[in-house]
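Thought: the user wants the 3D structure for the chain below. I'll pass the sequence to the structure tool as-is, report back what it returns, then summarize two notable features.
Action: structure_tool
Action Input:
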Amino acid sequence: MIHSYRSKSGKRFRTNARGALTRQPEKDINRDFPLRGFVCCDDCGEPYTAGWSKGRHKHYPYYLCDTKGCASYRKSIQRDKIEGGFEVMLQTMQPSRELFELSFAIFQKIWSHHEERAASKKKSIQSEIRKLDKQQEQFLDRIVDANNQSVTAAYENRIEELDRKKARLTDQMNRSHKPNGSFKEIYRTAFAFLANPCNLWASDKLEDKRAVAKLVFADTLRYKRNEGYRTARTSNIFNMLEDITMEKSEMVRMEGLEPPRLAAPEPKSGVSANFTTSAVGSRAFRRSAVSIAPASGKRKGS
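Observation:
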């Protein structure tokens, strides 16, 4: 007969058919609380823990501070308040369609510029390699006509030196080639997330929900019991969107103060390239190191 036990520490054990005591597998509680370790108590700064509280008829999910000495020690917060408030913040992060299209145009412009530079650099290196090939041929011709052994050895040394230069240039050319695939192929997933972060948060996968928190915010979040979330630092990519919004608003304001000018003809489709690169793109990107991938370092408590 199999019996189950719970130790004083709360760990579950059971006896198997032979009477041996074995540890029962614990449920992965993180799947029930995706923000566990990412949201911190505003009173002490330590990450909230989480769990289930047993009521008369069912269990209730909650987050709580487990730091002794904290003003909020062991005071629970409903899971819906923590995670519902988080979702509200995500909804405010969703850019307007106009801003999203403008951001996409900026990235695409920079991507195209990078491709052009890579192609130009490759062409320049190939030209340099052809010059070195020609020099080697000239030294080979001189070796044929040379009668002095020391002169022949000198020419051979020069040929070997040119070989080493060609190898370095070839390696440099291989490392500076343009990315494989098109802009849309490589950044499709990133821009799908940027268009609506809530879509990834709605995923059933724990890793997706945790990725949202790390992609949108630059640090852990602080939550004040009975009040809500404190102002959070967003990641570089969302800082960039804010920069674009502010600079665009400033341009509109300045245009309202300046005398009217003859408007340049509108492009048939898409965003104006001049506006994209000079008015917003260059300044926004100088201030924001764009990063879409999650940070590699672990956050406190995660």
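Final Answer: Structure generated. The CA atoms of residues 222 and 231 lie 8 Å apart. Helices lie at 79-93, 97-145, 149-175, 183-195, 197-201, 206-216, 236-257, 273-287.
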